[in-house]
Backbone:
């Protein structure tokens, strides 16, 4: 007797992602003959600032389509072409077709000038002509990038395109700086760059280009010919009196065919904040956080350089050698030291009713010295037949802070010292066997945070975190199908040791922590991407496996242990109406077991006002996408 048990779960969801844009379209015609005029260049500008919003060209039927931000209510259109006279018109009605009547212009050979278009597009590459956006006030390439449509740059030099962070930053096609590319955006001169290229749907691993589609974005800087192969150096220094202020900077750069380097020193006490340039823009690990610190106080909403007493010194040296056509070796090192101090006053009044009130006045003073060191080395062999990458990274931070809070005749002094060390290695490899792509990736990392916080009591804490993530998989193409299968093996082990002593404390197990949490995941994943027609993708994905989580609670001397069977099914369909407009349907179910939380069954003094404990060692939830 056969029994068939069928369980079908169907999720429906439909969501349309439109990037806040309005479509403006129309047709170009010759005024005298009323015939279609192909090859006209149409550029849309803001009427208030003159900023370029979008661009396009008329097709063989004279039709054209533009997309502009939906917050813009009026635009200026400029229509140009070598075969027509330039026309300018203003548009505030975006609902109807815009008819542009152009006049024929005879081509004169007496004198010719090359018109450079501000923005051009070829397939998935968008090229911005730097001279079209740069003015005399722009010093670095970051100043120009901020003016380019679709590109945003933050204070650390991090870049987003259409709201998405880029995953690669190239200079002449070479990845000199890795995740610390803010060094380039904040220091490479705008006058040295001729073109900024944006790579949409960028797949950085060449062997995967025909197997794995990517929606990542990359930036590539194209240098002027006179800059290539020659050393570029600059420096500046300044000093002032009452108060004594100083600033110094020295930079050296070389961009040759097979060798690139950037090195600089920056120092000041004027409030310039260059420390953020050393930020890791692309992270593969989640860093631990400090558990305690000096009490926060009210901070003005103005820029920190206006009220903080600051000084900083940073230096970095970066070099990349192109060993062969597809083989590179890069080394990056950086060190920074930052000092800041703050002094302020806080006044609070509490009304108790019946015209009674209590006023508290507190004077704050804090100062902190922070140090950061980074070293990274990566070897890459990136060919169409084989891929190998091995990256070693160390980052360390150590800081000391002092603080005091004075109220009436009482003063509370605070001291916080912390050290933070991370060492990681990331190994990736891909190769083909009989037109089947095999992939291997392994990430291993160790983190440690040690800190001491002292007031009338003393809190000591030590966190350690070791994890390893392994991926083994293959990809195979069958006509309109892309098939992939992967095995995930992950392991993580976290410990916390802490102790609270001093005035008012007793010898209690509630005042210290000695805990650990370990987790092991084994998952198999199968995915299929079906493209029946060019504008439609249907994607199936399912992960099946199990996870084991264990932990130790020192207070009740118990070991917690749980095993969970996991299944994660999903299906999605994407319709591409054009390069910018996409409609997506998604159905997804995912159980979540989160152990990435602080588990401290014993108390921890987080500040002079807060002492807390948490006996939650794991959270469980279920996500359904509709």
Residues:
């Amino acid at each position: 007797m056969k029994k068939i048990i069928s369980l079908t779960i169907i999720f429906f969801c439909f969501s349309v992602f439109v990037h806040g844009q309005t479509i403006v379209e129309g047709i170009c015609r010759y005024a005298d003959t009323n015939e279609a005029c192909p090859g006209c260049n149409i550029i849309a500008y803001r009427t208030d600032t003159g900023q370029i919003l979008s661009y396009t060209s008329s097709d063989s039927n004279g039709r054209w389509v533009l997309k502009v931000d939906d917050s813009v209510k009026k635009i200026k259109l400029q229509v140009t072409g070598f075969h027509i006279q330039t026309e300018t018109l203003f548009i505030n009605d975006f609902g109807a077709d815009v008819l542009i009547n152009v006049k024929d212009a005879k081509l004169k050979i007496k004198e010719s000038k090359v018109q450079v278009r501000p923005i051009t597009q070829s397939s998935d590459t968008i090229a911005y002509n730097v001279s079209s956006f740069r003015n005399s006030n722009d010093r670095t390439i970051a100043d120009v990038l901020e003016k380019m449509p679709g590109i945003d740059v933050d204070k650390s030099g991090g870049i987003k395109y259409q709201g998405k962070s880029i995953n690669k930053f190239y200079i002449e096609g070479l990845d000199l700086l890795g995740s610390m590319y803010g060094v380039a955006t904040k220091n490479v001169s705008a006058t040295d760059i001729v073109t900024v290229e944006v790579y949409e749907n960028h797949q950085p691993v060449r062997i995967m280009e025909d197997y794995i589609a990517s929606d990542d974005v990359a930036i590539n800087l194209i240098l002027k010919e006179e800059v290539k192969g020659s050393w570029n150096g600059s420096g500046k220094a300044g000093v002032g009196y009452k108060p004594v202020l100083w600033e110094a900077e020295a930079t050296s750069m070389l961009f040759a065919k097979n060798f690139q380097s950037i090195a600089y020193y920056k120092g000041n006490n004027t409030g310039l904040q260059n420390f953020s340039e050393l930020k890791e823009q692309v992270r593969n690990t989640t860093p631990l956080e400090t558990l305690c610190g000096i009490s926060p106080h009210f901070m003005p909403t103005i820029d920190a350089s206006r009220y903080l007493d600051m000084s900083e010194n940073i230096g970095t040296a970066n070099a990349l050698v192109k060993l062969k056509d597809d083989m590179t070796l890069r080394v990056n090192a950086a060190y920074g030291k930052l000092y800041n101090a703050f002094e302020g006053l806080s006044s609070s009044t509490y009304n108790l009713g019946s015209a009674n009130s209590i006023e508290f006045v507190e004077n704050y003073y804090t100062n902190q010295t922070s140090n950061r060191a980074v070293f990274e080395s990566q070897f890459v062999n990136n060919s169409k037949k084989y891929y190998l990458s091995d990256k070693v990274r160390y980052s360390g931070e150590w800081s000391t802070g002092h603080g005091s809070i004075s109220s009436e005749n009482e003063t509370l002094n605070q001291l916080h010292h912390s050290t933070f060390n991370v060492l990681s290695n990331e190994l990736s490899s891909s190769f083909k066997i009989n037109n089947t792509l095999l992939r291997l990736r392994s990430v291993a990392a160790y983190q440690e945070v040690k800190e001491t916080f002292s007031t009338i009591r003393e809190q000591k804490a030590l966190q350690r975190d070791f994890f390893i993530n392994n991926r083994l998989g293959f990809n195979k193409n069958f006509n309109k199908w892309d098939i992939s299968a992967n095995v995930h093996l992950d392991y993580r082990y976290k410990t916390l040791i802490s102790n609270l002593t001093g005035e008012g404390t007793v010898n209690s197990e509630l005042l210290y922590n000695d805990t650990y949490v370990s987790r092991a995941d084994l998952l198999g994943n199968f995915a299929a991407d079906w493209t029946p027609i060019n504008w439609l993708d249907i994607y199936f994905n399912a992960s099946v496996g199990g996870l084991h989580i264990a932990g130790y609670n020192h207070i009740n001397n118990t070991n917690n242990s749980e095993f969970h069977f996991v299944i994660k099914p999903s299906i999605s369909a994407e319709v591409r109406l054009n390069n910018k407009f996409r409609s997506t349907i998604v159905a997804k179910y995912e159980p979540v077991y989160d152990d990435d939380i602080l588990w401290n069954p014993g108390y921890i003094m987080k500040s002079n006002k807060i002492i807390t404990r948490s006996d939650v060692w794991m959270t469980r939830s279920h996500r359904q996408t509709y």
Summary: The first strand starts at residue 14 and ends at 17. Helices lie at 141-145, 182-185. Confidence is low (pLDDT under 50) at residues 1-19. Residues 141-145 form the longest helix (5 residues).
